[in-house]
Every structure is written in structure tokens, then in C-alpha cells.
Amino acid sequence: MQIGEHNTQHIHQPQPPPPVPRGSDLPRDIAEFTGRHDELQRLIETAEAGRTPVITIHTVEGMPGVGKTALATRAAHLLTGRYPDGHRFVRLNTHTTTPVQPATVLADLLRSPLGCRDCEP
Fold first, then answer.
1. What is the DSSP-derived secondary structure letter of residue 121?
2. Would residue 9 count as lying in a domain?
């Protein structure tokens, strides 16, 4: 801190360090993503508009094989710049006989490198 003329104070604060990248387990991006342009644009615009401290959750639903994972994966790759701390992909297996339980998903995410470092198992 410096005190200038006329009792003016100048406080110099260093810039915060950049976030430490913690990795990504997103599936590989789709090289030739076709179709679903309107849905993809809606996801991107909604995510980019959500600059408030409110968490927004988006769901993608449909029959097996219609491209839900491809759409979500493409959107995630387009949004990675907004989330420099890392990215997580969770297979819910909803169209199988053994879908993943929500508590299991939450526990796995909390124990991941992006989650709680000191959480009890």
C-alpha cells in the first residue's frame, strides 16, 4: 500500500492465481456432429445466460439411440471454457436393468478430484 499526495491511498492487490485444472473425463468430442442444431443452441445459450449464482440443471431425454449422449457431450465440449476447474461425465444407465442410484452418483462426484477433498468415504 502506498500513500500518495492528498492522503490518497493506492492499494495494489496481486491477481488471483489461475484455477488449477483438475482434468476432464468427458467422452471424446464428436468430429461430425449433425442435426440437433436447435437443441444444441438452446443448451449453449441457456448455459451462457446463467451467469447468476443460481445453479441450473438441464435434462436431455429420449429413447435409446436417438443421440442424447452425443448432444450432451457436444454441448459439454463447447462449454468447457466456462468451467476451467474440470469436467465430469456420469453414465446413469437409465435404459438398462441396473440404473445408477442418485446417492451413488453424488458420492462418486464428491469423491472425484472436483469434489470434496476431505469427505469421509
1. -
2. no
